Amino acid sequence: MVRAAVLPAVGAPLEIAEIDLPAPGPGQVRVRLAAAGVCHSDLSLSDGTMRVPVPAVLGHEGAGTVVSVGEGVTGVAPGDGVVLNWAPSCGSCHACSLGEVWLCANALTGAGDVYARRASDGSDLHPGLNVAAFAEETVVAAGCVLPVPDGIPLTDAALLGCAVLTGYGAVHHSARVRGGETVAVFGVGGVGLAALQAARIAGASQVIAVDISAEKESLAREAGATHYVVASDTTAREIRSLTDKQGVDVAVECVGRAVTIRAAWDSTRRGGRTTVVGIGGKDQQVTFNALEIFHWGRTLSGCVYGNSDPARDLPVLAAHVRAGRLDLGMLVTERIGLDGIAGAFENMVAGKGGRALVVF
């Protein structure tokens, strides 16, 4: 038996409980978690913004050590350090055939499986976004693990599994920021901090961080922000004043709220690019008129998992870490245990801090 944070029903508080994990079956891997990041997507799953079969063990950003492997698994062995990959690509759907593995139609099929049972009553448990990282140990499909790159501590490697792949990918793969361009990042959470660092790595001439909290300015500047704007009704105007009244070349929205998406769009120069990373609910409606779409000539695009291919991108990120260009540790503003996840959710709702990291 292992301890886990169980979501008994959508909208219900998390419960710390003992769960029974089976031995890994064919094509499966059992992993002892070293750390798991608390992502806004976990909050969105718990409150019903995104759908998930329940009861479930959430958590999709993690790293740990392989305990055992099932029949047919050859890519990893007991004792190996691994990063959890919550969205493994099937390699055969239409998106995968186009090389767009981040849009794989079958990536989340495992989330509907029963992967464990609650020890107290034997009730079925689902693995959240495939990997159930809010637990001391988990059992996942072999495609859900990737080797930890050399030189990356396991606890830091957890952040690579979502926040960094998403934030870095949003800048480099989706928005394709070029040296000398100006960038605004809306939302200074874990993903936003990674995006700020990515913009600096890309050689942006100005990196403007935007957040509702004035207290995050020092954190944003540590990540690479050259300017900081406290979000308000005049955010777009302030950003244009910082960019010779033009607006930024690229705006990256990491919040998922209609008002923030609209502000990011309004902050982008004529002909610029606005990339939406944040996951909002169906009630968050963003409106544009036909004339402004024509006049401004901007590009508005969604961004899933940073448009990243984890197998391709993890070595690239690791090289940046080893060279000192990417600081994983600075994303973490709180280290907690399993029982601290509910408090981390509350902090995200209040807009406090960067990434909370569950350390086992």
Verbal overview:
The structure is a single chain. This protein is an alpha/beta fold and 360 residues long. It is 26% helix and 26% strand. The protein has helices at residues 40-46, 94-97, 154-157, 163-174, 190-202, 217-223, 235-242, 258-267, 290-296, 310-322, 341-350, and strands at residues 2-7, 15-20, 28-38, 56-57, 61-69, 81-84, 116-118, 124-125, 137-141, 145-147, 182-186, 206-211, 227-230, 248-253, 268-276, 299-302, 332-336, 355-359. Strand 15 (268-276), helix 9 and strand 16 (299-302) form a beta-alpha-beta unit. The chain is globular. The mean pLDDT is 96.
Write out key terms for the chains shown:
single chain, 360 residues, alpha/beta, seven-stranded mixed β-sheet, 18 strands, globular
Fraction of helical residues = 25-40%
The run of helices and strands is EEEHEEEHEEEEHHEHEHEHEHEHEHEHE
Q: Give the percentage of residues in beta strands.
A: 25-35%
Mean pLDDT: 96
Sheet bearing the most strands, described? 7 strands, mixed
Which residues form runs of ≥5 with pLDDT under 50?
none
Number of helices: 11
The N- and C-terminal alpha carbons lie at a distance of 15 Å
Structural class: alpha/beta
Shape: globular
**Total beta strand runs:** 18
Radius of gyration: 20 Å
